[in-house]
Amino acid sequence: MNLREKFIKRRLLAKGFVLDFVMDTVTLPNGKRAKREFTVSPSAVAVIPLLDPGHIVMVKQHRYPIQKTIYEIPAGKIDKGESALECVKRELIEETGFRAGKIKKLIHFFPSPAFCTERLTIYVATGLKPVKSSPDEDEFIERAIVPAGKVMQWIKCNKIVDAKTLIALLYYRAFIRRI
Amino acid sequence: MNLREKFIKRRLLAKGFVLDFVMDTVTLPNGKRAKREFTVSPSAVAVIPLLDPGHIVMVKQHRYPIQKTIYEIPAGKIDKGESALECVKRELIEETGFRAGKIKKLIHFFPSPAFCTERLTIYVATGLKPVKSSPDEDEFIERAIVPAGKVMQWIKCNKIVDAKTLIALLYYRAFIRRI
Prior knowledge:
By secondary structure, the first copy, chain A, is α+β, with helices and mostly antiparallel strands.
């Protein structure tokens, strides 16, 4: 069966700095109408920075919506006019102070396909070299160089609770190299 | 350093049926003020339905915000007054027509910690028995019983793009049982 829902009209409920909150009216497969509310978000990237075979550069930051300070891999939304790869390089330098020698795409996913348009692509960065970085003065991020085995333990015991970080590292471990 | 951001005030930008879109004013660790926009969402659950050692009950549905029809594990938001476990049982029956003999908690995570409050907990259901279910007539979901090895191939080749499904199955494979 074709499960597709067809667009009829959109109502902008609110415009934020980064996100728009919208309500679309759609036609269901049975011909009835329904409403779909969701946020329209720019695409984003995340990157596993492999410092050497055994260490991952993690970032620790406060995530206000969930009221927690958590460990994640570096990530960010793609700026207007920026390519995904440029965004990976920029975020990596801004958040960790490392420039990547090589960047490889891993997978993409949708963090919340029922309620947000956001598409997130994960990369792996190797050949890292420290550079002089000037982080945004209103962005508070701590860098942590963590042994890969310890990160996997953190995942196992549910200390890591960020979706992109879980997907990136579990996928890497399952299909690229056991860490 | 304490990275915490302190609440000053909230502005409700828009109220949806399920989500609220809000803008909070916060105090940063350096004492400056900043705005944080995000959606306030109910908590949710997802469940890996293991039909027998080798098969997973997946659901296929259209996700309007991302304009794709995708495979996922069954999931849903927790209703008011409902416990997480009650929600798992209800969603499993509604979406797959199976009642669980045993349900076990796996992990929890935040799909989008920078832009949404949603907390999602993953469970594993075993001892499945078919029951008479009456799915919502305006919910279009197809059930698919898929060999576990095939699902892992779908993950590897990036056919699975839903965050909760990736996390649930990769975590299960890494730490519970290799599938």
